[in-house]
Amino acid sequence: MKKYLALKASAGSGKTFALTVRYITLLLKGAKASEILTLTFTNKAANEMSERIYKTLLTLGDDEAYLNAICEQSSMSKEQILGKKSFLVKSFSNATLSIFTIDKFVNKILREFCGYIGISDDFEIKEDDIEALSIKFLSSLDAQQFDTLIDFSLYEKKKFNSIFELFKILLEKNEKIEPIRIDGSLINLQKQEVLKYAYKIKEAILSCDVASNSAKKAVDFENFDSLFEKTWLSKEVLSDYSYFKKCSNEILESYFVDLKQQLQAYYKLRANYSLSKLFELFLMFKEFKLNYNKNKNYLEFNDISNLVYDLLTNKIDKEFLYFRLDSQFNHILIDEFQDTSLIQYNILKPLIDEILSGDETRFKTFFYVGDVKQSIYRFRGGKKELFDHVANTNKLLEVEVLNTNYRSSQNVVEFVNSLFINIPNYEYHNQQSIKKGGFIEVVEDEALDEDDKFENVASKIANLIKSGVNSNDIAILTYTNDDVLSLYYYLKKKFPKLKISTEMTSRLINQENVKAVINAIKYLYFNKEIYKENLNALMGKELTSPVELQIDFDKKSVSKIIKDIASSLMIIDQNIIKLIEVCESFDNIVEFVYEVDKLDATIQNSETVGLQILTIFKSKGLEFKTVILLDRIKRKNADKSSLLFEYDSVNLKNIFYKIKGYENYNDDYARAIAKEKSLSLQDEINILYVALTRAQNNMLVFKKKKSSVFDILDMTPCKIGQLELSSNISKNFDSFEKVEYTPMDLGIQEQQISKEKDSSSEILYARYFGIATHFCLEMMNKFTYESLDYCLKITVSRYSNYLKEEDFEKIRLRITNLIDNKKFQDFLEDATFIAEQSLIYQGEVKIIDLLLQKGDEYYIFDYKTTKSENSFEHKNQVRHYKKAISDIFNTNKVSSYLIYLNEDKSILDEV
């Protein structure tokens, strides 16, 4: 086993396999689980890692690949390894694991040492309320400090929120800032020096006999600002400007040289002045924010990292750190190392240095794995240069490259190789595939630039399903969450019965139906035309169409107002229902209209199976049998930040304040701009690499004809191989014989019939009827009539705003049928049970309606208020619960049932 190892693991090359083998090998060699610090970047990855290790230990010997790899790493025989299996399973199960996200580990350190900086150890972790924070910051400034902020805002033409964004960037970077005071009056003096030589050029051109009108117009300036707009200032020599060629002579060129020198001095003075003022303000803000967070007893993740770095740098030494942490970490494993930020690495560095100190008397190891080609989080601080920096600065470390792809079929792998291998200055190792076949299709789709941009995508989906590709095996990758939502709504209208799941973190208030309700309420409250126009635009109506809603704000709760408006607009869906639920926290409509935009609830998607739509960023680390990859629909937003950070590998070299044209007068700035452009290009290439390496069997690329992101890779239309069909039959769709498009209808249209309104109301009714029934069952600690009477009263008090008196009688009848069910009562006899049992499995929280235990047997029950067309989905859900309980309790004695609570009788359906 190599004690100090870095693995460059391309997509699909077995990174998780290598981490698992490494971890188990360490256990075999005597390491305790508590002293193996394993760091990942997401909670899901951390949960999956611990689960993968545990399952591999349980099944050790079943998988030859794992066993052979562990044999090779540990230098032990199979018999020796299997002989320790029981001991390893038991010790791992009973150990306090040190498998964390980096953020959680850093948080753990701060909670241990927070007393050294005056922070309570029960601090919360949450995002800043920028509005509240900025108001408090402004209030904290004295007259002189406030004038400094106002002067900077006016001078730079920046709004306060833009200045605070700069503060947040500087906080995230956490670099040492030392402002140099510069007298602002010197800038005006320097402007006069610039104008002095500019006027000499102007005079010479105007007095030149052969000067054209265009040449004279080019020197038409009266002050510094109008001079600053002239394009000829960027030329190397004045004669390079075509209109000045006839007038050019040595004297005129000498004036231009002097002018350029004065401009260079101006730019340097101007940029340094802006930086010095910004740094001065930032240090005020930084001190204020720390005190503000202390008083409010909360921190952001960036705050935590900064404070821990300060602790380790200035307050405590590494020996004391080791002493206070729960366990001395003798082994470190880091996943996705290319996404590590500088500050995260600097926090970990004392631990890493201790291990790499070369103390041969103790068993210590360091291992990290990653892929710089999958570095797509530079905007969040990820520093891919760290991968090679750490390897190059530590002679003990060995670097190996994994170049066998276990994920994708041969044609997919070879296609990706052909795109990336010849990119200049891009580190790429050809990948080998162990799977034959694979299908690639690249099509130029002009529709992506049209209003009906997803028409061809929908047709392709229909054809894939008709050809035998299971819709559950298809993933569509897009660039933005907006594209995910747009495509989701389009496909739901196109194929109403197709189950579609989305993996996104977009805020609830950004969902179309929710936005429509919010704008409707704001229009009724403020009576401002902008809200009416927003509402009509969302509803697909003329902007000036009247809004006919009659709502009494004074007599209804916020939740009831939302429900009534959504019902009137006929846009009730699961996101509206979620909005109703989360808005119960608002006491009145005034609070709602002023605070709803701060609501951080996320969009609801109840589908757990089906065709998936997700962003490329969300797809990282995942794999799908068939991938449909869409071009960037909208142009990428330009970088409007005023700051430019230049790094020499991993060390900060310069911070520049961006000024238009500065690159023409400062070589360092020009170099930094060029370096940033190169890094941005590599970011784009890396995003494409991640996107193009998710497919196992089939990959279909929809490429725009013009301005395509795929032009970076010189990708052209092609078709390679044969479509690989799914082995299982899809049950996630209706017939797709004909693909037709119907415009999305979110609102009231004259031709709509009453049945549509009924259906939206029925959605909400069914939702609350089911919730109330489940709540009543959850409250019952015994399945008796007495318990039912008591729990039903609680249910009525909670849900009387949403259901009628007869609805609660229906609930009573259905539960009574269950109580009278002899088969169900037989299960309850001599059993212990838990209602609404939560469990974490495969990184997700699952809720089991009822879990019974009788001796060493377990029984799972899932309540349904109707036996509907979703029974296939229901059974899949319960099968998942069954597998979870089987794995968690390591037993096969698990039975699962769907309980259909019908009005005439209760049915127990074993799954």
TrEMBL record:
<dbReference type="InterPro" id="IPR011335">
    <property type="entry name" value="Restrct_endonuc-II-like"/>
</dbReference>
<dbReference type="InterPro" id="IPR014016">
    <property type="entry name" value="UvrD-like_ATP-bd"/>
</dbReference>
<dbReference type="InterPro" id="IPR027417">
    <property type="entry name" value="P-loop_NTPase"/>
</dbReference>
<keyword id="KW-0067">ATP-binding</keyword>
<keyword id="KW-0413">Isomerase</keyword>
<dbReference type="InterPro" id="IPR014017">
    <property type="entry name" value="DNA_helicase_UvrD-like_C"/>
</dbReference>
<keyword id="KW-0234">DNA repair</keyword>
<dbReference type="Pfam" id="PF13361">
    <property type="entry name" value="UvrD_C"/>
</dbReference>
<dbReference type="InterPro" id="IPR011604">
    <property type="entry name" value="PDDEXK-like_dom_sf"/>
</dbReference>
<keyword id="KW-0347">Helicase</keyword>
<keyword id="KW-0547">Nucleotide-binding</keyword>
<keyword id="KW-0238">DNA-binding</keyword>
<keyword id="KW-0378">Hydrolase</keyword>
<keyword id="KW-0540">Nuclease</keyword>
<feature type="domain" description="UvrD-like helicase ATP-binding">
    <location>
        <begin position="1"/>
        <end position="409"/>
    </location>
</feature>
<keyword id="KW-0269">Exonuclease</keyword>
<keyword id="KW-0227">DNA damage</keyword>
<dbReference type="Pfam" id="PF00580">
    <property type="entry name" value="UvrD-helicase"/>
</dbReference>
<feature type="binding site">
    <location>
        <begin position="9"/>
        <end position="16"/>
    </location>
    <ligand>
        <name>ATP</name>
    </ligand>
</feature>
<dbReference type="InterPro" id="IPR000212">
    <property type="entry name" value="DNA_helicase_UvrD/REP"/>
</dbReference>
<protein>
    <recommendedName>
        <fullName>DNA 3'-5' helicase</fullName>
        <ecNumber>5.6.2.4</ecNumber>
    </recommendedName>
</protein>
